[in-house]
Structure formats: C-alpha cells, structure tokens
Amino acid sequence: MNLSGLKIEYFNLGTKYGHLSRFVNSLLFIITVILFFLAIQDIGFLMNQVADAQLNKPYSRILFLITGILYIARSIFFTNHLINRKVFYTNFLLGILLIVTFFFRILLSFDWITDRFFNEFSGFQLLAFILFFLEISRLKLDLVARLLNPAQVFMISFALIILFGALLLMMPLSTTSPISFVDAFFTSTSAVCVTGLTVVDTATRYTFLGKLIVLSLIQIGGIGVMTITSFFGIFFKETSSFREQILIRDYLSEESINGILKTLMKVVLITVVIEIAGAIFIYFSMHSQGLGSSAANAKFAVFQSVSAFCNAGFSNLSDNLYDVRIRTNYSVHYSVANLIVLGGLGFPVLLNIYNYMKAQTIWLSEYIKYRKPYVHRVGMITFNSKIVLGSTFILLVFGTLSFYLLESSFTQKGMNFDGKLALSYFQSVTPRTAGFNTFSMDALAKPSIVIMIFLMWVGASPVSTGGGIKTSTFAIAMLNMIRIIRGKNHIEIHHYEIHEYSVNKAFAIIALSLIIISVGSFGIFLIDGQYGMLRVVFECFSAFGTVGLSMNLTPLLSDGSKIILITLMYMGRMGTITLLLSLSKTSANQSLYRYPKENLIIT
User: Fold this and answer.
1) How many helices (H) and strands (E) does the chain have?
2) 136, 245, 508, 538: most buried, per Cβ within 10 A?
3) Do residues 508 and 578 both lie within one domain?
C-alpha cells in the first residue's frame, strides 16, 4: 500500500471536494465577521462593558468553539500538510487555542495587563479582531487583480481603511466628547496617510480606545494594507494565484515574483524590530516620573516609536514633543529623529542594508573561524540605495546647518551648543514628512519657514512610510540640471547612466505636485483667506508632503478647507504617478510608430 499517496489523498480532500472546502471557508468568514462586530459593539458602544459585553455571552463562547473546530477541520482535511506546513500548523494550533479557551476562559482574561494598560479592552475582543483580520487575509484577489491595476488597488484599499477608521473614531467610547464626521474623517485620513495634521487634540479628545485606533491606522498606513494582509496570508492561505503574486510584486516594487514571500517577511520583521528598539530607547531616555508613571512612559514610548517610524507626526501629548516635561530631553528627540530617518529611507534601502549587514556578519564569522580573507562583492549596495542615502545625508546636513544659523535668535535663543545642535537636527528631520515639533511654530524665523516648505516638498524616499516628491526625484532633477550645465546628453553618476524614463517621471512628479499644491492653496485661500497666504501655503505643502506641521491653522479651518486638506493628504500619500497610473487601462498598447522629432524654443 502506498502510504504517502494515501496521506496526500487524505490531507488534500479540498481538491476533490472543493465545494465543501469553500463552505467551511465561507462559514468561518461569516462567524469571524459576526465576532468582529460584536467586539466593536463591546469596546465602542457599551458603557458598562463587563456586565453587558456581547463576547461574554454564552452564544459568543459557542461561536469561538465552532471557529476552533472549523480551524482544526480545515487544517486536517483541506490543507496539504506536506506542501503547506506553515498553513497546517498555524490553523491547527489556533483551533486548539480556541477550543481550550472555551473551557478555560481565564486564559484570555489578562486582568493584570488590561487593568494597567488596556482598561476594559479584554483578550476576547483582541482575539475577535485577529480572527477577522486573518480571514480577510485569506481572501483571494483574483477578481480584484483582473478588474483593477495595482495603482487602483492601492488607492481603493487606502480609501476603504480611511472610511472605516473614521467610523471607528466616531464611536461613543472613542472620544471624550462627540466629534463630527468631517473631523473623524480628517483624523483617519491624517493617520492612514501618516501625515499628523489634527483638527482636535489627540491627547485630550480621544480616549485610550481612540488613541489605539489612531495608532493602528498609522501602522496600517505606514507599511500598507497589502503588505500586512499578504504577510498573514502566508500562514493562513493555502495558495496564491499568479495574478495575486503579480499584484503584490508591483505593490512592493519587487523585480521578480520569486522573492515576494521573503521580502514580505523581511519588511514586517524590520518594521517590528525597529519599532520595538525605538520604543525601548525612548522609554529608557525618559525619567522614571517623566510623564507621571512608568505606565504613562511606556504608552508614550510605544505610541511615539510607531508614529515616528511611520513618519506620522501624531503624539499622545497635547503639546507634541514641545511638552514641558520632555522639551529639553534631547535623548528622546534624537531617538525620535533617528526613527523618522529610518522610516523615511524606504523599505528597499532598509532591505539592502539588512542584506549587506548579513553578508558582512557571515564573512566576519568565517574570518574568526577559518581566517577567510575578505572578498569585495560588487553591487552589494545598490544604485538606488546610494542615491537615496546620499541625497538624505545632503538634505540632513543642509537642514541642520540652515536651522542652526537661522534660528539662533529665534527658537534657539539662549540655548547651549548641545541644545542648539539637537534642535537643529530635529528641525531638519521632522519637515521631511514626520511633523513632530520640539519648538513653538509661531517663533520660527521667516527664512526657516521657507526652508521647511522646501524640505516638506522633497519629503522622504520611494517605497517608504513618508510622502513628498521623494529624495530620488529631487536628486534626478538636480543631476539633470548639472547635466545640462555640463552640456551632456545623458545623466551619469557612479558609473551608471540614469534611464530617460526616470528623468521624465521625475519631471512629471515635480510638475504635478506643484500644480496640485497650488490648486489646493488657491481653494483654501478662497474659503479661509483671512488667515493669510503664507499660513495657507505652508498648510498645503504640509498636507501634500504628509508632514503634519502646522502654523496653528488646522483647527481654525472650515469644513470646506478641511476637505481640501484631506484630498491633498490622500494625493500626497498615493503619489502623483500612482494617481496617473490608476487612470490608465493598460500599459500593453504601446505605439509601434514614432513621429519625427522637433526642438521647441525654451529660452
């Protein structure tokens, strides 16, 4: 008897009985949706959660039990454990956890944690959210990939998250007092687009639940909806179609399909490691009673680390980093600034640095063991990384020196050298899509405001958590200008020639960004022109660059101006090229002919 063949038949019933497998998957999805909305009702609408919580009712416990049984059934009967071991084990273990929890509910009580950090937000609501999210991650994207191009999927996914986030922020228990839909929609857009502009005080207007929702929206917006769902889909989805892999490849800007799974794993791992390390650095940079207690310090450290790495600019303090308790804590400022820089470099650069450090570590280990000589490998630091790192360094030095010289009689008046250096460095970093402030915006010198507008416009790097026209776009524009001055026909740098397509793309991004910002500024000036053109223009550059800095104007704007800023934040996060690509039907219909070339008189 062929036992291996019998095993494959037994563990691959989903192939022979596809309708049964689809029924189990559909039933699981429906149950997790029900549990999700019950959890939403518990945490967002019930004033007396312990007594009235829906997830404490007997029928909710039965739903958890059925879910556990279905997970085990799916792992045993509808997953080929010889091919998809990760899927088999994760589904099976989760099913066991749900069944055990049904009989021993105390396992998910977490009273000692919830009382100190999460108030009435219990482990059962958290479990309901996780189950719903995992089932969402398992959904196949074939139909979506067939109907929409990657740019359209990217834009629609962000729009849906923004709308859903706005509805969550309007729940009674999300705010200390009710807010309008426009304000909730503005906050959700600002969080998902990792901007940081606020129309209400995040620290006082939102409850712990509201701040948790904002933080979740920041994290989703920072690394992307597709990245998160695709990552969890690896462990809970049996197969991915070719169309899905193409969609994810284009979203991650990968060159091939083969490296998609590893890239997803590395992106999530790098994000988690950096944010945890950042939170630890911030926490230990605080005084023991810096914000009143160690719990308050921990909440601040976690919130600030995620917000900084995602270049969001949100803070759970009313005065942001200008709060009197941390205003002169330069260790916190440096930690936050470095997290902003890392998040703004972009995942391709971070992955390249990771691979380089991994190769160097392997060589060092082999050298210690076997005295293996070092062999230089060409191209370990990619051309893209060199351009991004070089332009980032130049912009940081330029900004730091500029603010050090211009602000000595304004925001830095009376400070010692260490304070001036810390503030100058932070002022140079934060306009590049972060939006934190360690100073009073009203005290800025006018030349500094102009430099801030320029830095906000340039922004972060491609495929990063930040916005703006991107450092590589600005670098290409500068290199093209130098190329024209030198009288050359093409751009050459680092023994490479930059493709004409990249130059044309950079020009289109620059032109479109200025047009969009100009139209937005004109619209707001027509509605709220009484606040002055400089403040309006600054606000629009901040919104489009997804920065979050404001000259104390955002809360004063009318609803019409807020909607314009919402549009600018969304466009800035999506990117102008993404907006254009979303309008194109296909790139396959290229013209097979060329017209005669003609020069146009420029000067």
Assistant:
1) 27, 2
2) 538
3) yes
